[in-house]
Amino acid sequence: MHSHAARPPRLRSFTSLLAITGLALLGAVAITTAAPAAPANAAEPLPICPPDGGMPPIDNLPSYTDANVAVYAGGDYLAAGSAAESEGLLLVRGNATFDKIEGGIFNVGAVGVGSGITPAGGDTMLAVGGELDVVAPTRVDVGHNVDGGGAVHVGGTGSPAGGGAGQVETNGAEYLTGLGQPTAMAPYADFQDVIVEASSALAATPSNGTTQVSGIRATFTGGGSGMQVFTIDAAALAPITEVFFEGIPENAPILVNVTGGPLAFAPSYFSLNGERVDAFSSPNFGNAASQIMWNIADATTVTIGGASQVMGSILAPAADATVTASTNGRLHVGGDLTTSGQGNEQHNYPWIGGGPFDCGSASFDAVKVITGSGASAVPDDAVFTLQYTYELDGETVSGELLLPADGTAVDGPSDLPVGTVVSFTEIDLPDVDGIEWGEPQIDEPEITIGDDVVTRITVTNTANAIINSVGGFSASKQVEGDAAGQVPTDTVFTLAYSYELDGATVEGELSLPADGTVVDGPQDLPAGTVVSFEEVELPAIDGVEWGAPELSASTVTIADGTTVEVTVTNTAVPVTPTPTPTPTPTPEPDDSGNDLAETGFSGLVPMTAAALALLVGAALFFVARRRRA
User: Fold this and answer.
1) Would you give the distance in Å from CA 441 to the centre of its chain?
2) Which partner for 569 in 172, 301, 422, 478 could form a disulfide, CB atoms 3.0-4.6 Å apart?
């Protein structure tokens, strides 16, 4: 569903080629074809890279594939105003924001009308090292009109996927966020260094042509064969609106080194060997665009203004740039890049001067195959990491390809020298629930790059389904004691349980009826799980007092394929009722209205005492007489 675009050739190869050719035509692409342009067709892949001198004109159909960087922002990228499209791979080291003044669609990768030179269907067409923000009502459409769409890689957060306002549409390709900057930009994480070094090398190239400025016209007249090199100061170029190239050999690359800065450049007319080539009707529109390179090595601020078609690649490694015109070529800016014109577009034409600016095609690609009993459980969007390593100019170069589980082919680096030995290792297998991975099998763990050959690497992983050892627990209630008969059978008791699962505490409750019915707890707990129990909130029942609950086990360990049963016993003790005191009767009143109890009692007390004294005295008298007698 996606692919990393190819890694650009290292500058050492670029500068060595300069020295060897002595300013001749810089390296042809590794894989080229003279086949005619063809419309997108799912059954017939597009040809890779157009030949020098055979660049397609402006059209509305994809015609060739190119895996190299078309537009690059070393800082942040902003599509504002009424900017419309960015063709080819758009690579942003910082944050990318799409915020058109009136909303609408901004196309990336493939455009409505352009060169038709795009990344292959499903390959990465938008890579952002930082965050991706699509501001509604703007919509971003990646890979439109390309079979397989265009993948999007984001280092940080990204706006939602989909075709609506504030969303990213990938047309069936992959959309990955949260990758981190190096992975999101891979294999172009060092592209800033690449363009800085390449610009410096180009700026040091001696001129072999002449430059003449007259009013608003600059005329660059070639000299000799091979690459045509010119130099002009930014201040002298600023007022120029008409650009003439004269005496240029057929299909020769053109390099214009612009010194100093800042630069504000708004050309509106381009002529090559007597023919105006900036009109879409020109049969040499594509060829002229692919020949010219503007190397703005010194300027820290660059404005490409106007509303016309600017011909040629623009390289400004130290600059923040604002572009309102449409550009035709590579557009590589080391700082922030803002495209903010009226329907302006970036059309992708590789520079035929070579280095990191030419057309890129894979020297190898790789696919993922999943086998084993658990293959069906592996999601199609699972991503596997294939690491590759090779030696280039005495240094070890490493990179990674992210292989989707659905078997989509992913391109490796482009333009590796013939004879380069590349080694492969799979790392960091993805975590998939219920799956245990076997040892990866790489059909060709080491390959040697051949001439005009794309070698396919097949990486097979065996997904073994994990048969989980699980068990469960259940519980029941038992009521005992002299008052057990007073407990209704539908009385419910609450048994709380807890256990650790995946580092988190899980808690729950079972409702146990007094009739002893067995109640199941979870039955899919991993074997070895320790479950703890506690009875809580005993029910209140008249005439019953509860003793302390007794659990057959306060903790249990789950065993494979079994259910552990816990019995909770409660003793019901009868409660002896407390006697109710008999109340004292209230006396009734007499006829006089006084309470009988009060009048009788108050007179009775002294009378009773007197009578008692008389009785005691009489008794003593009687006893005494008996003794005398």
Assistant:
1) 28
2) 478
